[in-house]
Write a structure and sequence with these properties.
A hairpin with a 4-residue loop joins strand 4 (73-77) and strand 5 (82-86). The chain is mainly beta. The protein has helices at residues 3-25, 181-191, 194-204; strands at residues 39-41, 47-51, 56-57, 73-77, 82-86, 96-107, 124-130, 133-144, 147-158, 161-172, 206-207, 213-217, 222-225, 228-235, 243-250, 255-263, 272-279, 288-294, 307-315.
């Protein structure tokens, strides 16, 4: 090819390549990006626009079921001596409960959670922190008729016990919908604050002391004398090594007598275990006092402390 032909071709190539690569090589840093003025409707009724270098929609505000606990219902289990509040329904159009209200379980023990990846026969397990409360979360999912059913178990420590909530939610396959339902379904899935909902239910849980320990003798304000025999029953979690401490104080808070209550049957159970104790005392300084039955706390941590106090009338021994 003649030289006079090659030179113009080379010049043309240089010009073309310059137009292609110049903007990429010398593009100003952090140059503003103009996003389209679109808006996405969020499940709570608000809307978000596109932003950022990739012009992605901003996250929708998180929403949960009705967070106004004044409107929540109360579930009570007399056998467990526990109650908690829960929303009658979720504030969601696509996510629906399949097993509701949650099943609550209370058991003794120390919190532990060993993470594991889920399999068809084993749940996925991980540790989650929700508003400074540590949970062990287990999930199992299965598909059916265009939906995914996920069973959740949230377990945490509360009042020196392990509290678990178990329930199942149904999630439809959002991609089976046409727009705008498809977009609404996906947005709801992204924004739904299930963790916050569960934490609210757990925090609302209350425990009846009568379901933890019951004293047959003495009854409140009874006249007692030495030797004082104390009888009753307590849940196995109240004991450690088949015993728990008992203290008798006068009206000034001074110890009059102390000892251990002993289980009279197997204490390694969640059920009630009968116990008995005997305290001896002489010449109390006041005519009234308080009998204190303390939950045994081998950990020594104050958050695991608990006790039942019974006012009594003290009678001096002869």
């Amino acid at each position: 090819m003649p030289k006079k032909v090659i030179i113009p071709i080379v010049l043309i190539l240089i010009v073309v390549l310059g137009f292609i690569f110049w903007p990429k090589v010398f593009k100003p840093q952090n140059s503003p990006v103009a996003c389209t003025m679109e808006a996405k409707l969020c499940p709570d009724g608000s809307s978000v626009g596109r932003s950022g270098p990739n012009c992605e929609f901003a996250p929708c505000p998180q929403v949960a079921a009705d967070n106004n606990q004044d409107s929540w219902k109360t579930f009570s289990d007399p056998a467990l001596g526990v109650s908690f509040k829960y929303p009658d329904k979720l504030s969601a159009d696509y996510i629906t409960p399949a097993d509701w209200p949650p099943v609550i379980k209370v058991s003794p023990g120390q919190f532990s959670c060993v993470p594991q990846s889920g399999t068809p026969s084993l749940p996925d397990r991980k540790v989650k922190t929700i508003n400074n409360q540590i949970y062990c979360l287990e999930t199992m999912s299965e598909g059916a008729a265009g939906s995914v059913y996920t069973t959740y178990t949230y377990t945490t420590a509360k009042n020196s016990q392990l509290v678990s909530l178990t329930f199942t939610l149904r999630y439809p396959q959002c991609l089976n919908y046409d727009n705008p339902k498809q977009s609404d379904c996906l947005a709801e899935r992204q924004a739904f604050d299930l963790d916050g909902l569960v934490n609210g239910m757990v925090l609302s849980a209350g425990f009846s002391k009568a379901d933890l320990i019951q004293v047959s003798y003495p009854v409140p304000n009874q006249i007692v004398a030495s030797p004082l025999t104390i009888t009753g029953q307590a849940r196995g979690m109240w004991f450690f090594e088949a015993s728990f401490p008992i203290e008798l104080t006068d009206a000034n808070g001074q110890t009059v007598a102390s000892g251990l209550a002993q289980a009279t049957s197997d204490w390694m159970t969640e059920n009630f275990v009968p116990f008995t104790a005997t305290l001896k005392f002489t010449k109390p300084q006041t005519s009234t006092g308080v009998l204190i039955l303390k939950k045994d706390n081998p950990s020594g941590l104050p958050e695991h402390d608990d006790s039942l106090q019974i006012p009594v009338v003290l009678k001096s021994s002869s």
